[in-house]
Amino acid sequence: MTLEIGIVLAVLTGAVIMFATERYPVDVVAIIAMSVLVVSGVITPAQGVSGFSNSATITVAFMFVLSAALFKSGAVVNIGNRIAQLFKYNFWLGIFVTMITVGVISAFINNTPVVAIFIPILVGAAAQSKLSLAKMLMPLSFASMFGGVCTLIGTSTNILVSGVAEEHGLEPFSMFEMSRMGIIFFGVGLLYMMLIGIRLIPDRGVEEGLMKKFGMGDYLTEIILTENAPSVGKTIKNCPLVNKLDIDILEVKRDGQLFITPSGEMVLQGGDILKVRCNVEKIKMLKEREGIILKSDAKFKDETESADPKKGDNNIVFVEAVIAPNSPFEGKSVKELHFRQKYAATVLAIRHRGELMREKVANTTLRAGDTLLIEVEKDRLYNLQQLELKGRNTFLIVNEVDFPEYRKDKMLTVVLTLIGVILLASLEIMPIMMAAITGSMFLVITKCITMEEAYNAIDWKVIFLLAGAISLGVALDVTGAARMISLFLIEIIGSLGPVAILSVLYIITSLMTESMSNNASAVLLAPIAIATAFELGVDPRPFLMAIAFAASSSFMTPVGYQTNTMIYGVGGFKFADFIRVGAPLNIIFWILATFLLPVFFPF
């Protein structure tokens, strides 16, 4: 083993560990890995940045733009709203049509925005029909993955593996090359969920109202400051309530006027009514403090119900929002984001990795999939909705408050443009990269989406992840590390034949994807698959297809795939729920891939 191979393997091992532990953002890890490889001389600077000019990276970027334009047109929302009505009549009909529809749509656009659109629709349907939200959301996420493996553009992973193949002188994947196997996965997955999977999802009852869902009954109360209270005459940030009892003051009512998200410099006065957040023990302590009167009649309205302006409540609403995958909020706390000051809204509680947090909320580091209970004035809700409309992938408001305005007059143009992109690529009139670029620019010219929105729609964390990970793939290839690993693989199981190796590559990819980025798993294993095929003297296509399918079929954990992460907190899932439902499905797909991929893609 040469020094260069040793460096590549060390960097690869470190990257995989950091991808899996989520200690640092995946894009940062990928770029650090690229930098180490270039600085150490393993690859040239040109090879290091080649991932940015890779056709797969560019294609993925512009597919984000096409997906965003479709989202802004409201086309998917219209479909979703019609489907939601079916749940009023029959749960099984509603879930079957939902899975079919989401799967078909996800075959042609990025499945993350599809799931983002359907989550609030299903939240509303569950509330109206008194059905289990969890039994709707997991099938939603899984169906989006079923559809994603049916076409080249169904998921960025397919495009990426195709790009790696092209870089190695192989034919790129055609638009519908994966469809035969993908449709089998779709059909079997749908059948499994309808007959077995949904029944394995725990039914934890129907939550009535966000306040109950987040268990805020014992954590919010109102107190009245008397004239002799120790906190009177002091600023909020320096008053004993905050400094000694560590209580959060969320609102101040004074002389009929309501101050939401009051400044820390606000001076408290006798007669002020404070809405505070604290646990039961602290509430008991409040009762014993001089100059404080507990309001026994304090009531907090739930969901989108407006309070009475005449009473000074100023139309306050409660909304639930989920931190999106690759959100700029990831890795930061509510305090660091200056959330109250910037959005005039208060985060009351956080469901964080299955744990419900109602204290120390401001200092909790946010992760993708965390759900926030937010209190906001109804006329300020627009500011939060704009984070969705501008395509910044920040968070998703999941309960059905007023939906943001969509450009319905552009709906036909966007749909026809997307169909045109698919036809141009599938008929090989134009490479998929150029079709995506052309389609995106046409939508800009026709004002279906602005250039600013197009820039914002691109998930730059994914782009930098792809670029950095591709450089790792290049290093594996040029140093001979991929060949060395492939020889080791052949030595262990080569005697069992290429089908056994395909099966092993599938399961390795699947297990890696459960704990780290699916794109990173694919781009790291694809060069090894190609090297293995060359050593065996067989066609690399089946091996590459195994990696593409495995990387896009991650059902066993809430962190392995973005759509699972999105539903994690909203559905009130536990980590074990995904193992219970997803593990059998992973095994079924593994067996299908092992026996059918060599049939559709002969060696």
What key attributes describe this structure?
603 residues, alpha+beta, Alpha-Beta Plaits, five-stranded antiparallel sheet, 10 strands
Overall number of strands: 10
Measured as a percent range, the helix fraction is 55-70%
Determine the N-to-C terminus distance.
Answer: 30 Å
Structural class: alpha+beta
Number of helices: 26
Number of domains: 3
Mean pLDDT: 84
Strand order of the largest sheet: 3-2-4-1-5
**What does the radius of gyration come to?**
26 Å
Q: Biggest β-sheet, characterized?
A: 5 strands, antiparallel
Strand content: 5-15%
Shape descriptor reads globular
Low-confidence stretches: 303-313
Give an overview in words.
It is a single chain. By secondary structure, this protein is of the alpha+beta class. The protein folds into three domains: 3-206 and 413-600, no CATH class; 218-294, Regulator of K+ conductance, C-terminal domain (Alpha-Beta Plaits), CATH 3.30.70.1450; 309-397, 2-Layer Sandwich (Alpha-Beta Plaits). Helix content is 55%, strand content 9%. The protein has 26 helices and ten strands. Residues 303-313 have low confidence and may be disordered.
